[in-house]
Each structure stands twice: as C-alpha cells, then as structure tokens.
Amino acid sequence: MASLFSLLTIGDLTLPSRIVMAPMTRHRALHGKIPGSLNALYYAQRASAGLVITESTEIDPHSSVDVPTRPGLYNDAQQAGWRLVTDAVHAAGGRIFVQLSHMGRAALPAQLRDGRWPVGPSALAAAGKIYTANGPEPYVEPQALSLDDIAGIVGEFADAAARAKNAGFDGIEIHGANGYLVDQFLRDGSNVRTDGYGGSVENRFRFLREVIEAAKAFWPAGRIGVRLSPTNPFQGMSDSDPVAHFAAIAALLQPLGLAYLHIVAPAVVPDGQADVAPAIRAAFHGPLIVAGGYRREHAEAVLANGGADLVAIGEAYIANPDLPQRWRTDATLNAADKSTFYTTDAKGYTDYPSLELVDD
C-alpha cells in the first residue's frame, strides 16, 4: 500500500515522495515571457516535492510578450531564463518537469502578435467569456487549422521539447487539459473535424500522439508526461461521453511507456459530473497522478486504495513551500492569500514562511 512518503520510480527517475507540485499559472514571468530570478526562487523553495511541474509554458512564438504573463519556451532568452530555474531546483535537491502548452482557441486576438488570429481544430468559439485586464470578454471564433498548420504546431512542440532539454529540465509534461489546444482536439465538443484528426477517439487522439512522437526525438518516453482533464468545463469545454472517450484515450497512451498520466479528477466529484478516474485507472497501468482539490486526507486515501500513484497539490503549495515537511510533521499550514495569486511581484509568491523561519 502506497503512502505519501513512499518512493516511486517514473521512467528512470526516482521520486522521494508521492507529493507533486501541481502546475499553476502565477503571472510572474518578465517581459518577453522570460523566467527570472524571482521564478527561480519560487520553484527552488518548493523543490522538496516528489516532483515539481511548472506552470503552463507557451510554445507558440506568436503569443503576446506583455506582462503580467505566463512564461514561454520558444527562444534563447526564455531557455536561458528557465536554466536559472532548473539550476536552482537541482541545487535544492529537486526534480522538475516543464508543462508545454498552446492556447489554441482559448487565446484572444490581443494575446497574439503579428496580426495572428486564434486557432483551433474547428471553427467553434468557446462558450462563455475570458477574464482580461479590461474585464470579461467573449471568446472569438477560431480559424480551423489546416493540415500544414497542424504540422507546424507539432514542430513548435518539438522545438520546445528540445529547448527543455537544453534548459536542464528533468522531463516535460504535454498540457492536454483545461481547454488548451491539445484538449480542444481530444474533446468532441470542440473538435468536429471530418478528416483524420476528427470523428473517432483514435482520430481525435492523433494530434496528441504526433506531439508525443515529436518530443521523443529529444526525450525518452519515460521522461514525458501527459495531463488530461476529461470533465473540466473551463474555457467552454465539453465532451459527450467523457468516461468512455477518456478511458479509450488512456488505453491509447498505455503502450507508449510514458513517465506518467496526470488527470484532473476532483477529490470530491461535483454533483452531475462523471467520475472518470476509475475507468482511466483501469485502462492506464503506468504511474497515474490525480489533481483537483486534494487535501492531505484525500491524498492519503486515494494512494491507500490504489486509485492513483501520486497526488498533485495546488493551492496548498502556493502558501507552503515546505508542504511535505509540514505534512510529515503534522505542522499547521499557512493560509493562501488568493488576492496575490496573479499579481506581479514577490508578495504572495516567495514570501510565505517555511517551518524553519517560523521556528526562528
């Protein structure tokens, strides 16, 4: 029976615990989507996690570079910025994967440069609105990607995977969740293509498979993870049968020898939402990470009953850089200040006290 502090090997990497720092957008990148010394400190402070997964990192070279912003990994300056982060995490004894993403139809035209327009698998606008500095704005209808466009974006993922290796990461996570481009291909509420990238589950999986194969030119499969969110409605996402479809997607991922599959599967499933985790667990036999509001008691229970191999923790990691130590010693947790989650300076980012500082 696994516990929070059981060792686990993913690929050829041994993790000291089953506690994963979840990917969380924090809007602290510098102009140019470049990570800086503040980002390096933030991640190094949390290096005691079994595995650190970075915030969503943009691979689209046409994305806006204005601040506040998410980081990118498509040019030399960004690669050098991430090297600051990985060096700091490794010096603190940690392990870190970078999460690679493309916004697809979730972008607004103002978030793109060079006159680019948002793209997606199909010309279907996401329902709802996106929150911006100017208030909520409706999503726009994206341009449906051509076959050449798709090949080009696969190439951008490959370039980012190569840069991740050069930046010193221990591996990569492909962001196929939360309404971003890979997720848009996977779910039938956003993908109504009639060619080889649409229709059947196998066809909708094709884009993700090509991204994985492109990344394998630079990483062994055991250093590549994938994140999925079968039921998350964020950014107007939906699927007609998430249990059946994502169990089938998990089965397609199973033979690829990935480091892990990371799923957004809430600790407490909301009323009316399908519980997809058991079907995915049955279909995918490699290391499985679950995320979604897990407290310590939830994490211990899902590991004990075999429902997952690792648990990704979000909000508690923002406020508690030494979360594993706090859980191991039953220490009180710091409360998170939500008003600082998406601001631009050190407040609410790198100034939460560790137990050592509290004791001092």
Describe this structure in words.
The chain is built from eleven helices and 14 strands. It has a single domain (8-359), classed as TIM Barrel. It is globular. α1 (37-45) runs parallel beside α2 (76-91), α5 (201-215) runs parallel beside α6 (242-253) and α6 packs parallel to α7 (277-283). The longest helix is centred in the middle third of the chain and has 20 residues, at 147-166. The chain has helices spanning 37-45, 76-91, 147-166, 181-186, 201-215, 242-253, 277-283, 296-304, 315-319, 323-328, 355-359; strands spanning 8-10, 13-15, 19-21, 51-58, 96-101, 119-120, 129-132, 135-138, 143-144, 171-176, 224-228, 260-264, 288-291, 310-313. β12 (260-264), α7 (277-283) and β13 (288-291) form a beta-alpha-beta unit. With 360 residues, the chain is an alpha/beta fold. The model has no long low-confidence stretch (mean pLDDT 96). Helices cover 31% and strands 16% of the residues.
